[in-house]
Amino acid sequence: MGNRLTNESSKNVIEEDYEDLDMRSPGLFALLVMLLSYIKPEKSTPVQPMCDIRVLDKYIREAKDAANTTCEEACTLPGNITLPKTNVNYREWTTKDPGTKAAEVQTGLALLAVAVQKAQNMTVNSNMLYLIEKSYSNIRSITQMVRSLSTPDVLNREPQLLTTFNTRTLRTIFHVYLNFLQGKVRLFMLNTAACNLATS
Predict the structure, then answer these.
(1) Which of 51, 89, 112, 91 is closest to 183 using CA atoms?
(2) Deepest of 22, 64, 80, 103, by most Cβ within 10 A of its Cβ?
(3) DSSP helix/strand/coil, 198
């Protein structure tokens, strides 16, 4: 009997507590909404683009490995592939404005991406396919890196006309890719102010 009374009284107390919580919940919610409305998120400053030349050097090493691995005879393609010529006149390059340099680099990378993708569609050798796919992925990453260092007006420029030539060998494709990275891409990144910290 005593236990029953005790249990019933405990039950009543618990029910009252729940009722109190239910009554307080809307008030607590309203208070939280009011507090949150007063808290204004700070305006985040845009992150300045930074490039680390060591990242490009890693891609250059991988391009060099691909060029050295590819044989001339076993990797002839059934169709022509268009590639950009990679020779750089350093004196002429230094006289170009940053926008022109960026546009040339982006156009060259776009040509290389198309060339590597075409080579992928023409290749059946599984070992070569791995190198091609890896190179294509790296070209896309390098393109993003170059774009992040370019101003909006540069990104909207018309593609630059580059001198091109045709090839039918994977070896030539990889060598052109390597030369382009070591030449115009590296020069462009070293001339970018954001790279100075990474190279110091």
Answers:
(1) 89
(2) 103
(3) helix
In the block, residue with structure tokens 């404005």: 97
Q: Rounded CA gap, 142 and 106, in Å? A: 9
In the predicted model, what is the mean pLDDT of residues 34-42?
A: 50
pLDDT of residue 167: 93
Contact 176, 84 (CB under 8 A): yes
Helix (H) and strand (E) counts in the chain: 9, 2
Question: Which two tokens mark 39?
Answer: 């808290």
Residue closest to 105 by CA, chosen among 91, 92, 86, 89:
86
Backbone angles phi, psi at 76, to 5 degrees: -85, 135
| Residue whose entry in the numeric block shows the structure tokens 């985040």 | 44
Q: Which two structure tokens, joined as six digits, stand for 31?
A: 């208070």
DSSP annotation of 50 reads: -
Single out the residue of 193, 199, 200 nearest to residue 54, CA to CA: 199
**C-alpha to C-alpha distance for 127 and 144, rounded to whole angstroms:** 27
* Structure confidence at residue 54 (pLDDT): 87
Asked if 168 contacts 81 with a C-beta cutoff of 8 angstroms, the reply is yes
pLDDT of residue 47: 42
Q: Is the pLDDT of residue 10 over 80?
A: no
